[in-house]
Amino acid sequence: MSLNDCRLITLPKITNPKGNLTFIEGDDHIPFSIQRVYYLYDVPSGAERGGHAHKALQQLIIAASGSFDITLDDGRQKRTWHMNRPHIGLYVPNMIWREIDNFSSGCVLLVLASHHYDESDYYRDYASFQAAINNQSS
Ligand code: TYD
After folding, report:
1. 86 φ/ψ angles, rounded to the nearest 5 degrees
2. Could you tell me the residue ranges of all domains in the chain?
3. Which among 54, 117, 125 is the best mutation to test ligand 1's pocket, defined by most ligand atoms within 8 Å of the CB?
4. Nearest CA to ligand 1 atom 17
5. CA–CA separation, 122 vs 97, rounded Å?
6. CATH architecture entry for 3-137
């Protein structure tokens, strides 16, 4: 996987003076079936989340409310996105390291995931992630 595989996905948005609505259907609007949903909230000012990559997990990451910065790293290069629109998600495939910070007050970071939680799917150590990338490309 490379940064070229990471991309913003614009989701359907039903606008209404009484409030907007966005919906997401697995295998349709996003390139995987949704097996898990989780969300981060009550994130204190200055907190940093992420700091890991996944062996197999794919995710769509959305600023459901508020904003944050997310930096993706494929082991060769990095890119940062400022996420602040509830109808735009960032597709993060497997084998991509992520760091998330600069959370706004009251931010809700919504994640749709392709698999159930599995700690053995994580690289939590950057050197191990880098070694796995190097092994794949050699
Ligand atoms: P982690 O994925 O490291 O969070 P972040 O990337 O936002 O910093 O998960 C934090 C903790 O929550 C860790 O102990 C694992 C646990 N967890 C679950 O039990 N189930 C889940 O679905 C997720 C995402 C995390």
Report:
1. -65, -15
2. 3-137
3. 117
4. 117
5. 10
6. Sandwich (2.60)
